[in-house]
Amino acid sequence: MAARRLVASLLLCSIACAQHLSLDSLLVRLRTPNISVDDELLAGLAALGPEAAPAVPFLIEHLDHSWRVRETLAAIGSVGLRDPVAALRGAGPNLRLAVTYALADADEKPPHTVPALMGLLADDDARFRRALGKALGRHVSRLALLVSLDDVDDPRVKAGLVVGLGMAAEPAAAHAAEILDMLADPALVVQVESLRALGHLCTLPSGGSFQNSYFVDFAAALDLVLPQLCRSLSAQEAALREAAARGLHQILSRAPHRFDAELAPAVRHAALEPALLAALEDEVHAVRFHAALTLRRLPEPSGAGAQALVAALKDPSARVRELAARALQTSPGADTGATVCGLLEVVDDPSRPVHNASLFALQACGQAAAPALPRMLELAAQSETYHEAIGVLAAMGPQAVPALLERLYGSDAGWKRAAVYAFVTMDPIPALPPGPLLELLGADQPLLACQAALLLAHAEDVCAGEILPTLLAWLEAGWTTPTMYAALAALGNDAIPALPTLLRQADDLPFDRDPELYGCMLATAPSSRQVARALSAGLRAARLQIPVASVLGSGRAALSPALVEMLRDPDADERLLASWGVRALPALEGPMVDAIAEGLCGTDDPLRGQLLASLTTLGVEAAPLLPTLRDFANERRSRAWLQCVVAIGNPPALECLLEDVQERPGFVDGRLKALRGFHDVEDHILEQLSRLEPDASHPLLEVLAEVSSSPAASSLFLEHLMGHDPELRSLALDGLASSPVGPTHGDRMLNLLLWPNEEFRAIAVDRIGECGASVLEQVLALACGADGDITRAAREALPAFGPHAPEAFELLWERLRDPALPKACSEPIARTLVAMGRNSLRRVVRLLTGDERERAITVLAAGGEGEAVVALLRSGGTEAQAMGLLEALAQMNSVPRGAVEATTPWLQAPSALVRRQACITLSRGPRRENVVAALRAALDDEAKDVRVAAREALRAID
Predict the structure, then answer these.
(1) In angstroms, rounded to a whole number, what is the distance separating the alpha carbons of residues 39 and 829?
(2) Distance between CA 54 and CA 74 in Å, rounded?
(3) Considering only CA atoms, which of 679, 732, 739, 675 is closest in space to residue 701?
(4) Best exposed site among 29, 36, 245, 791 by fewest CB in 10 Å?
(5) Degrees, nearest 5: CA angle 108-114-119
(6) Using the 8-state DSSP alphabet, how is residue 346 labeled?
(7) Which helix (H) or strand (E) element contains residue 807?
(8) Which helix (H) or strand (E) segment is 57 a member of?
(9) How many Å separate Cα 60 from the centre of its chain?
(10) Is the pLDDT of residue 751 over 50?
(11) What's the pLDDT score for residue 499?
(12) Confidence of residue 264 (pLDDT cuts 50, 70, 90)
C-alpha cells in the first residue's frame, strides 16, 4: 500500500509539472463532495506553484488538514492569493489563520500586500493579530516596523507590530530595548504582546548552526529581557503575569545545550528562581503551569525552590503536579526527608504522568528515599510499575539491601530476577553472600546468568574458577553485552583466559560496543602488549570513540610499558601502531616521554607525524615534551609542532613560543598562527615588552600588531609612532590598523589627523571615529574649513564617527541645517547621521512628513543606506513617506538592489504625485519587461503629469 501511494504521488507530481491540463484534473478532485485531501493531491498542487492559484479557495475549505494546506498555499505563493485583504476580512477565524500562515511561510510576498496586512492589524481577534505580526516580522525590516509604530495610535495595531518586531530575523539585542519601551504603553494589549515578543526575541531558532557572535548577542539580550519578565510575574493584571510566564518558559526551553554555560549566569543574575517560586502560588492556572514548566528547565533548584515544588505537588492541576515532580528530579533539595514525604503522597496519584514523575523523583533522592521502601516493594511486584520501582530501590543502595536479599532467598522467580536487577544497577555494587547467586549462575537465560556473575565477582570468598566457565561459554556463544564485559572486568587478571576471545571480537563487534570491550580488556590484562596492539588498532581504525577517558577507566595508566616497548620495536609498522595508542594514555611520564622523544628525533617521517597528531589529542598532558618539541622544530624548521603547543595551551607553552619568537625572529609567521590560539597572549607580550629595550622588541611588537585587541596595545603603538626608528613606526602603523582606539586617545588621534605625514593621516581617517563624541566637534570644525588636505581628511573621517557617537545626532542635524555649510561637507555629515544606526535612520524617516522633508530626503539619498530605504518602501507606510523614499531613491548615485521591485507597485497608488514620482524613480533603473509593461500602462493614466513622466521613463530605460 505504501509503495502504491508513493508511486501515485510521484505520478501526480510529474503530470502536474508536465502539462497544464493536470490542474483541471486536480481541481475536479477538489470540487468532488466529501473528497479526502490527501498528500498526493496536495503534492501535485504544490508542484504547480503559482499556476495552482485557482485551487486556493477550494484548499481553504479543507481545514481538517490545515497544516498541510498551509504548506501547499505557501508553495503556491502569495501570488495565488489574488486579494488577500478580501479573503482575510470576509472569512471565519480558521480560514483567516490558514491564509495568514500561508503568507508568513511564503518565501516572497508582493510589496502591495504589506500595507494591506498592516491595515488588518486592528482586528479584534488576538490570534489573528499574532499571525499577522508573525508574517510581517518575517518579511519586513525591523526599521520599517519601528517607523510604523511611530505612526499608529490604535493599541491593537501596535500590538501586532510588536509581535512582528519580536519575530524579526535580526540580532535580538538590537531591538530588545525598543520592545521594552512598549511596556510603558497604557494599553494592556500592547503590554501583553510586548512580553510575548520578548519571549520570541530571546529564542534561538531550532536546528542549524550559529556563529559565536549570535550567542554573544543572545546573552546581551537576556541581560535586558530576563529582569523585566521577572518583574512582570508579579504584575496586577493576570494577562501580564501569564504572558511573562510563557515568555520565560519559551526562552529556557528553546536554548540549546551548547548555550547552557552562558545561559546559567544570566538566569542567576536575573533572580529568576524567586520570581518563579512566587508564581507557583498564583491564582491563575496558566501562570502556575508555565512557572513549573520553567522551573524544570533551571540548572538546579535551590533549597527554597525544592520546598516550593514540594508544595506544588498538591496543586489542583495534574499538569502542575507532574511538572513539579519532574523539576524535583533535577535536585531534591537540602531537606530530602520533606521531599520524599511529599512525593510519597502523590505516588498513588490518579494521574499516570504524576505517578511516574514521582517515582523518578524518588529515584533522584538516592539513599534518602529509604522511607519509601515498603511502598516500592509493593510497586515492584506490579508489572506496570516494575522498572520504576526497581530503579528507586537501586538508588536507595545499602538501605534496600536487606529487603532485596530476603526476596533473593525466597522462592518467587520473578522477585529473584528483580532483586538481581536492582543489585546490578546499584552504584557501587554491594558485596553479597554467594549462595543464591551460584544457583542463578546456571540459569538458561544469558542476561540473568551474566548479572549473577557480575554480582558474584563483587561477592566475598568466591573463586573466579566458579564464575569464569559460565562467562566463557556465553562469550563463545556470541553473547556480547555491557553486563558480560562488566563481569569479566570485575574479575581482573583472573579473566585472562577470555582475552583471546575478546581480541577476536575486537575486529567483529559493532561500533557502539567497542568502548565496553576495550575497557574489559584493559581491566583484564592492562599491561599486555596484545591489549595495547588491539587498542591502538581500534584507535587507528576510528572504531573507538575519542576521548577515551570516559570509557576506558583507570586501566589506561598501565598501558604505558607495553606502548613503550612497541615504540622501540625494530618493526616500523609496530612503532607506527603504537603511536596511535599514545592517544589512550592519561598522561606522559618517565619512559614514555623518552620513547616519544626518540621517535620525534628519529628518521621515521610517518612516525613523527603520527606522534605529533597523538600529542595534539592529549592536550595539556603533553606538557613534559615541550623542550623536545622546541628542539624538534629548531632542527627541522617544521611547523607541525605548533599544533601540539597550542593544544597544550598552558603558560609554559606560551612562554616557549614567545622566547622562540625573540631568539629566531625569522620564523615569526608560523609562531603567529600558534599564538592566536592563546587568549592571554597580549598581556604576556605587553609584560615582556615593558622589560625589554626598544631594539630587542621588534619581533614581539610584530606579534603584538597581529594579536592586539585592547587600548593598552594602542597606547604602545602610538608611542612608537612618534619615535625615530622607521621600523618601529612601520610596525606601529600595522598595529594601529587593528587595535581598538578608545576616547582616551582622542587628542593623539587628532594630532595624527593634523600631521603632515600621509600615512599617519590615513590611520587617523580610518580610526579617529572610535574616539567618539569627544573629538567630533573638532573634526567637524576642520571638515567645514577651507579646502585643503586636512579638510578633505576630516570630511573622509566623519562617517566613521557614526557607530561610536549616536548621541551627537542633534549636533550634526543642526550643522546640516546651517545655510553657510559648504556643499562638499553636507554629504559626509549625511552619511555620518545614517551610520549612527537604525535608531538614527528611524528619526530621519519620521522627518519625511515634516518641515525637514527635503533635508531628510538628502540624508537618505547621500547616506548610502539604499537597501534600508528599499525595505521601508516595501513595507508600505503613508503616501507622504513613500513619496519621500521614492525621491531619495531617485537621487542616489546608484540604484540599490530591489529598488525596481519595490517601486513598481506604487504606480498604482491613489495619489498622482506618488505615481509620477514612481515613474521618475523607475527611469533610473534597468530595463525589464515587467517595468516596461507597467510604464506603458501608466501612459493611459488619468493624470497628465503621470503620463509625461511615464513617457520620459520609457525613453530613459530604452
Answers:
(1) 58
(2) 14
(3) 732
(4) 36
(5) 150
(6) H
(7) none
(8) helix 56-61
(9) 36
(10) yes
(11) 80
(12) low
Cα–Cα distance, 847 to 883 (Å, whole number): 12
- Asked whether the predicted pLDDT for residue 3 surpasses 50, the reply is no
Cell reading at 888: 531619495
Question: What dihedral do alpha carbons 76, 77, 80, 81 form, nearest 10°?
Answer: 130
Q: Give the up-direction half-sphere exposure of residue 230: CA atoms within 13 A in the CB hemisphere.
A: 19
The HSE-up count of residue 226 (CA atoms within 13 Å, CB side) is: 25
Handedness of CA 854, 859, 861, 866 (dihedral sign): negative
Q: Does residue 123 or residue 116 have the better pLDDT? A: 123
CA pseudo-torsion sign 554, 559, 560, 561: positive
- Distance, in Å, from the CA atom of 868 to the CA atom of 144, rounded to the nearest integer, reads 9
What tens digit of pLDDT does each residue of 229-242 get? 888 888 889 899 99
Give the other-Cβ count within 10 Å of 103's Cβ.
27
CA separation for the pair 505, 259 (Å, rounded) = 40
Asked whether the beta carbons of 869 and 860 are under 8 A apart, the reply is yes
Query: Looking at residue 87, what is its pLDDT?
Result: 59
Which letter does DSSP use for residue 490 in this model? H
**In contact, 99 and 70? CB cutoff 8 Å:** no
Reduced to 3 states (helix: H, G, I; strand: E, B; else coil), residue 315 is coil
The model's pLDDT over 906-922, given as tens digits with 9 standing for 90+, comes to 888 888 888 898 898 88
Residue tagged 530576563 (cell numbers): 226
Report the alpha-carbon angle 608-610-611, nearest 5. Answer: 65
- Is residue 674's pLDDT more than 70? no
Answer whether residue 696 shows pLDDT above 60.
no
| Sequence-distant (≥ 6) Cβ neighbours of residue 668 within 8 angstroms | 661, 699, 702, 703
Q: What is the largest CA-CA distance in the chain?
A: 110
* pLDDT confidence of residue 417: 82
CB 599 within 8 A of CB 607: yes
Query: To which H or E segment does residue 792 belong?
Result: helix 789-797
Q: What is the DSSP string of 721-749?
A: HTSS-HHHHHHHHHHHTTS---GGGHHHH
Q: Which helix (H) or strand (E) holds 61?
A: helix 56-61
What is the reported pLDDT for 16? 40
Query: What is the per-residue burial (b if ≥16 Cβ within 10 Å, else e) of 291-328?
Result: bbbbbbbbeebeeebbbbbbebbebebebbbbbbbbbb
List Cβ neighbours of 145 (8 Å cut-off, separation of 6 or more). 136, 137, 161, 164, 165, 168, 875
Q: How many residues does the chain have?
A: 958
Residue corresponding to grid cell 553479597: 432
Average pLDDT over residues 689-701: 64
At residue 21, the pLDDT reads 42
